[in-house]
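User: I've been trying to design a sequence by hand for this structure and keep getting stuck. Would you show me what you'd pick, starting by listing the structure so we're on the same page?

Assistant: Good idea, let's start from the same input. This is the structure you sent:
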């Protein structure tokens, strides 16, 4: 194992998990999102339609989130780190990959995949999997509620739309955009510090 200062406090097994997640699984999930975006926009030429713009928006938002979270998560791991972190991070990445695949396919499963993504991420926060030793319960619950808000927005779109497919065209990217903006607001100071910007 390398002498990485980020992993000095970790056991051998956690260091191994760190290298697998940082070097393989996160880039694989990001590659999945990028490939899905390329497949959606270039491999099968189609006219520019509202559903296509909606699906491309979901993929762009997922890609932007993955870039920022990869930097944040693996430059400042939760301390103490537990196996719960790795389990929820794996479920989180599987939900991202599934969302990307069904988005590029235009499948109706996109709603289910995005709801699963929000629930898994919210539950990971609520369980304390991503909590830092200095983190507060308010932070843990707040980040969980931000993700559960995404589910509520999708459900509200379902209830208000007479045409289910039409209502999901705006509800899905809106839910992801609101969740990412709120997450970014919550993590803004930490992200700026990690990226070397003065705040």
């Amino acid at each position: 194992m390398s002498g990485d200062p980020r992993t000095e406090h970790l056991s051998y097994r956690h260091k191994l998990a760190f290298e697998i997640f940082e070097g393989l699984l996160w880039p694989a999930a990001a590659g999945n999102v990028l490939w899905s975006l390329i497949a959606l926009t270039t491999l099968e030429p189609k006219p520019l339609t509202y559903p296509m713009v909606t699906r491309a928006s979901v993929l762009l938002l997922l890609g932007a989130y993955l870039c920022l979270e990869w930097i944040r998560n693996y430059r400042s791991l939760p301390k103490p780190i537990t196996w719960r972190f790795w389990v929820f991070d794996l479920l989180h990445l599987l939900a991202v990959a599934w969302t990307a695949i069904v988005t590029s396919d235009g499948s109706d499963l996109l709603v289910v995949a995005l709801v699963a993504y929000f629930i898994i991420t919210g539950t990971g926060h609520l369980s304390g999997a991503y909590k830092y030793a200095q983190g507060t319960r308010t932070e843990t619950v707040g980040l969980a509620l931000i993700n559960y808000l995404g589910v509520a927005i999708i459900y509200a779109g379902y209830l208000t739309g007479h045409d289910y497919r039409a209502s999901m065209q705006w509800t899905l990217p809106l839910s992801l955009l609101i969740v990412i903006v709120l997450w970014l607001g919550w993590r803004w100071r930490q992200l700026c510090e990690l990226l070397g910007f003065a705040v």
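That's my pick for every position. To get oriented when you compare it with your attempt: Residues 12-43 form the longest helix (32 residues). The mean pLDDT is 85.
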